[in-house]
Amino acid sequence: MIDILLLLIIVACAIAAVSIKDLLSAIMILGVYSFIMATIFTRLNAVDVAFTEASVGAGITSVLMIAALSRTKRYEYLYTKSERRKPSALFLKVLSLFIVIITGAVLVYGTLDMPEFGDPDAPANKHVSPRYIEESHHETGVNNFVTAVLASYRGYDTLGETTVIFTAGICVILLLRKFKKDDDDRYAGICY
Amino acid sequence: MQEFIKEQIIVRTVSKFFTPFIQLYAFYVIAHGDLGPGGGFQGGVILGASMILYVIAFGMDEGRKRVSQKISDIFVSTGVLIYAGIGLLCILAGGAYLEYAELPLGSHHLASHLGIYGIEIGVGITVAFVMITIFFETAKKERKK
Hints:
The structure holds 2 protein chains of 2 kinds.
Chain A: H1 2-19, H2 23-43, H3 47-69, H4 81-84, H5 87-112, H6 123-126, H7 129-140, H8 145-153, H9 155-176
Chain B: H1 2-6, H2 9-31, H3 40-58, H4 60-66, H5 69-92, H6 108-138
Helix pairs in contact in B: 2-3, 3-4, 3-6, 5-6
C-alpha cells in the first residue's frame, strides 16, 4: 500500500518537474524525488543504494544543479501563442509524445518477463549471490557484503568508477577554470 | 549578493556549527563501510557537501582560505593514486592486482580487511575533492558592475 503511494508521489514529482517553468523549483522537486526514491530503496532492503541516492541524488546533485543554474537563467523560455501554434512546433510535440509512448510501452513489456520480487529461484539470486552471502565474510574479512562485492570481488569496477569521477573533476577544471588572474571572477554566490 | 549573504547571521551561525558534525559523520560513514551501509563514495559526498555548505554561507573567498585551489587539486588525484597504489602493493607482495589478502599485514583476513579500508579512504578523498572542485568551478559568477 505504502509502496503504491510512494510510486504515485514519484510520478507526481516527475510531472511537476517537467511542467514547472521555474527551474529552481524544478531542481527542488528533483531533490524531493530523490528522497522518495531513497525511501523506496530502503523498503526494498537496498540500504546502500538508498544511502547513495539520498546523499548524491538529493544532496550533491541539487547543489551542483543550482550552481549550474547560477550561470544561466532561472526561468524557462516562454513560447508565445503564435510560436506554439507553428506547424513545426506541433510536429515536434507529436513526435516526442510518440517516442515517449513507444519507449514506455517497451519498458512495460520488458517488466513482464521479470521474475517476482524476492523470488529465490530468480537467476540473479541463483548465480553468484549465494556465494557472496555465504563466503564473503570468510574471504574478504568485511561484514557488509555490499562493500565486499564493491571493493574486493569487483575491485576493478570500483577503480574504474573512481577514475571516472577523477576524470570528471579534471574536465571541469580544464573547461571552466580561468587560468588567468582575473579580479572580476572571484565572487561566488548563487545569484540570479 | 555577497553583501546580502553577509547579513544572514542565522545561516552563517548554523552552518558554522554544523560543518564539523557533518564532517565527523562523513568520516564515520567512510570508516564503517565494512560494517553497515555506506562507504567511501557516500562518505566522500557528505564530506564534500559539508565544505559546499560552508562556501554557500561564507562565500568563495572564505572557502578558498580553508581549501585552497592547490590543495584540492592535489587531493583530487591523491585518492585515485591511493587506490591504484594499493593494487600495485598487492603485486609487489606477490599477489594479483588488488588481491588484498596477499599484503604482508598478518593474517590474510586482516590484510584483506585493511586493504578494503585503504581503498575506501582513497575513493572518499577523490569523491570529496572532486565535488568541492566542481562546485567551486561551476558556481563562479561574474560580479555585476
